Amino acid sequence: MPNHPALEITDLRKTYATGVQALKGVSLTVAPGDFYALLGPNGAGKSTLIGVVSSLVNKTSGDVKVFGIDLHAHRSEAMRQIGLVPQEINFNMFEQPFDICVNYAGFYGIPRAEAEKRAEEELKKAQLWDKARTMSRTLSGGMKRRLMIARAMMTRPKLLILDEPTAGVDIEIRRGMWKTLKEVNAAGTTVILTTHYLEEAENLCRNLAIIDRGRIIEQGPMRSLLAKLDVEGFLLDIDGDLPATLPAIPGATLMAENPHTLDVEMPREMDLNRVFAALGEAGIRVRSMRTKSNRLEELFVRLTGQPEAAAKGAAA
């Protein structure tokens, strides 16, 4: 199995009974050990794709292989390689985290003694061991999300699929989840993530595919795709207040973010020193600089033609 891709999808199609074509010949390959993002606007086909791979939705045609195992021909064997974390919290709120993990393992035929050992390991990794014997409904939102991951890892999946794992949580919880997912991936588990937080994909994932209207419209290494952008944005922190009239710099666009911060957009090939020189001539002294925007979001909007509001809601 190590010589096979973690996930190999070839010409996958799905047409629902209503006539809706959710997938129109999707093909993609995820390498073992990768952290892979699947992005797309609402209705793009992401949920259907994840449903087919996790055997919750029947395909119309095409092939899906998990570590070289044909999902259609050898469903049980293929599914033993996969752990799924759905968007919705779907465990019994009146069970304890320890029991949730042990019972889940039992569904897959794991002996109880081994399941209890794994439950302790996974709950400790998820920083939930001190909550192992408390009622799950008392856990915070972030703890519940981490419990979902711990439960999925009980079967020691080689491929972990997460459908919007941080949807609806605040930034502190989200960043805690990022740390957990990075640790899972660093331990050798291949991770596929669907998310509508494009910042999340840019921070976590090495490769990605963008799906729109049932087709993959772009895929490849994150860095290579971001390099296609011909515009870069920066925020410059200024000493003192910005003047009422900003200098004109050919090729660059300048806007005042606030009285002390300058928003600059410029072509990638443009020399940043030209900007600094022009600002210096205008008496504007730059104290510090940081990248302005989420470049992946810009790429997403450019490729799909979705307005920003739709891009932020990309998830279906």
From TrEMBL:
It comes from the Bacteria. Keywords: ATP-binding, Nucleotide-binding, Transport. One of its GO terms (molecular function) is ATP binding. Residues 7-238 form the ABC transporter domain. It holds the Pfam family ABC_tran. InterPro entries: AAA+_ATPase, ABC_transporter-like_ATP-bd, ABC_transporter-like_CS, ABC_transporter_ATP-binding, P-loop_NTPase. SMART domains: AAA. PANTHER family: ABC TRANSPORTER ATP-BINDING PROTEIN, ABC-TYPE MULTIDRUG TRANSPORT SYSTEM, ATPASE COMPONENT. This is ABC transporter. The lineage of its organism: Bacteria, Pseudomonadati, Pseudomonadota, Gammaproteobacteria, Lysobacterales.
